[in-house]
Amino acid sequence: MNFNFSLLINTLILILFSYLIGSISFAIIISKILVLKDPRFYGSKNPGATNMLRIGSKTGAALTFLGDILKGWIPLYFSKILIPNLPLINYSIIAIAVFLGHLYPIFLKFKGEKEFLLP
After folding, report:
1. Which of 49, 74, 98, 111 can pair with 64 through a Cys bridge, CB separation 3.0 to 4.6 Å?
2. Farthest-apart Cα atoms in the chain, separation
3. Looking at the domain assignment, is residue 118 inside a domain?
């Protein structure tokens, strides 16, 4: 079996990068940009698109939803560009890292968003 240490290091860096990207809360960023209530202290107290809708901002909810989609897509896209022959299991692990960052963001003391989008 041929072990590729460089591939391992690159994959670990991508996993860390993906977790950090997943930790970005677009609901909080967009609520500050649009001068809305902080979704962590209103409604369900969950910083997500549905709570942005509860705050009364369809635009904020749509932008939060778009940001959450992009934070899942961007790490996988860049992984494909940076390491074109990355094994499929590595992409799966990278996607899980983004998801875990979304649920347990380091920037919010590991209290993040829920995994559902329901009004």
Report:
1. 49
2. 57
3. no
| Domain membership of residue 58 as a residue range | 5-108
Flag whether 30 is in a domain. yes
| pLDDT at residue 44, rounded to an integer | 81
Residue 116 in this model has a pLDDT that exceeds 80: no
Handedness of CA 5, 80, 111, 29 (dihedral sign): positive
Per-residue tokens: 40: 């962590």
CA distances from 82 to 6, 47, 79 (A): 13, 31, 5
Confidence band, pLDDT 50/70/90 cuts, at residue 7: confident
Cα–Cα distance list, 104 to 14, 25, 70, 74, 100 (Å): 18, 10, 18, 19, 6
> Half-sphere exposure of 73 toward its Cβ, with a 13 Å CA cutoff?
6
- Domain membership of residue 116 (yes or no) is no
